[in-house]
Write a structure and sequence with these properties.
By secondary structure, this protein is α/β, with parallel strands linked by helices. The chain has one domain: Rossmann fold, CATH 3.40.50.300. The chain is 19% helix and 25% strand. It contains four helices and twelve strands; from the N terminus they run βαββββαβαβαβββββ. The longest helix is centred in the N-terminal third of the chain and has 14 residues. It is globular and about 50 Å long. The chain binds zinc ion. The site of zinc ion has 8 residues, from loops.
């Protein structure tokens, strides 16, 4: 839960923060918390999410625990540039669904003086690094890795267990399809014929 002390904030430039972890680790909740605080501080905030993720709402980012903030739905990460001229703080949720261009876009906007807060899954359901999040972690000034609780053993969980045997990397779902597991309890579901 990194809240950067004001005296340690970079001056005369923007920066990139990444909030990552498995599903149900509270990434969106933490994103919403940071964006709300920026709004309370009277900063201009813009929030984006990929159009692939319409699980809860078309026009808001919503956490599993039902916190929400109005957001702009985009299919192309370049659209962030169109809508964020006057924004001081830019939030991007579910960033694993964007192309690797997101790295360039975040760098560009941060260099223009904006604070960029990105949330996304760092591993896919098999435990492999989930591009472009690893690339974003590399260029970010600040990284927060959230943990969920393993539903099997209660360990801190950083892996997303898929409960159905489907091998597509992206299947949008929530507790119906996924649960949080630790390294010990996580496995890759075998494909049925
Ligand atoms: Zn476990």
């Amino acid at each position: 839960m990194t809240d950067i002390p004001p005296h340690q904030l970079p001056k005369d430039t923007g920066w990139v923060e990444v909030i990552t972890g498995c599903m149900f680790s509270g990434k969106t909740e933490e994103l919403i918390r940071r964006l709300r605080r920026a709004q309370i501080a009277k900063q201009k905030v813009k929030i984006f999410k990929p159009s692939i993720d319409a699980r809860y709402s078309q026009d808001s980012i919503v956490s599993h625990s039902d916190q929400s903030l109005p957001s702009i739905l985009i299919s192309d990460i370049n659209d962030v540039l169109k809508y964020s001229d006057d924004a001081q703080v830019i939030g991007i949720d579910e960033a694993q669904f964007f192309k690797e261009e997101i790295v360039h876009i975040c760098n560009l906007l941060a260099s223009k003086g904006k604070r960029i807060i990105v949330a996304g899954l760092d591993q896919d359901y098999t435990g492999k690094p989930f591009e472009p999040i690893p690339q974003l972690l590399a260029i970010a000034e600040y990284i927060t890795k959230q943990h969920a609780i393993c539903v099997v053993c209660g360990n801190p969980a950083d892996k997303t267990q898929r409960k159905i045997a489907e091998s597509d990397r992206v299947i949008v779902g929530a507790a119906d399809i996924y649960e949080a597991r630790c390294r010990k309890c996580h496995y890759i579901p075998e494909e049925s014929e």
